[in-house]
Description:
homodimer; alpha+beta; Arc Repressor Mutant, subunit A; three-stranded antiparallel beta sheet; three-stranded mixed beta sheet; about 35% helix; DNA-binding
Amino acid sequence: xxxxxxxxxxxxxxxxxxxxLVLNALMNASGTxxxxxxxxxxxxxxxxxxxxxxxxxxxKHVVHAIDDGSGSVKYEVCEGxxxxxxxxxxxxxxxxSCHRTFCLKDxxxxxxxxxxxxxxxxxxxxxxxxxxxxxxxxxxx
Amino acid sequence: xxxxxxxxxxxxxxxxxxxxLVLNALMNASGTxxxxxxxxxxxxxxxxxxxxxxxxxxxKHVVHAIDDGSGSVKYEVCEGxxxxxxxxxxxxxxxxSCHRTFCLKDxxxxxxxxxxxxxxxxxxxxxxxxxxxxxxxxxxx
DNA sequence: TCTACCCTCGCAACCCGGTTGCAAGAGGGT
DNA sequence: ACCCTCTTGCAACCGGGTTGCGAGGGTAGA
Lengths: 141, 141
């Protein structure tokens, strides 16, 4: 909680109650959260407020957005103090059974060399499949 | 054109005029096409018909879908005769300036090894940045 | 040939995540 | 206390995707 406030101040984001709520939810989440996840986790807060908060967080590099192709963008707290570089991008795993997105933080996204003229800004590396839990419980595709 | 019909028959898809139109458009496209692209390319055909055609094509492995995080799914004709395997997946480049998606067919998507228990079915490897053309014409982000 | 059936297609309506305009509310500085 | 700015909630909107339904057209069997 204190941690949240500190983090916001460090990134130059004015501290408000909603921003603490959103950041706290993201920091306590086991994985990533979507706008919808946050909406249902924070029932008292309006969707558009959460949306604008996330928008601000992304701009200020408090969190980063991951598009896992599920139709809803996921958010995750940035680890480093400064901006995320290409090398910071890590691998994500999307479970096609339970529709959760896992951060494989210790697996950094591989970087291929591009043809002449292409300039890379970011990498989206998503592996889709079945997560260990769903396999264990025999949930079929 | 003949090529289209042959390809559909080979994949066990009943040949209809709309299916030929859609597949032909995709085969002649320089890159990938979205549902919207096809809709405007084939003015006479209804959106839902194109949607259902693409749905069928994906199921029958005539085309595959790529989610480049632009908000609209892109489609691309499958190369091989049989189903696409992990190794077949190639890299895509999304230009944040002109919003086009490029297929880097000769760059196959890198495969990382997953933690115990995760089962990979497909890979989405998207690099976002600025394409050569947009850089040349000095279009800034 | 006639009929019954199934697949395909167009239309319209819907769904849902995301986004925006606007007005009220809260907070900080003077 | 006052003003200005930022923040928030509400409601409406947007666009891609999706679905229900009924009409059209082809096909197989009688």
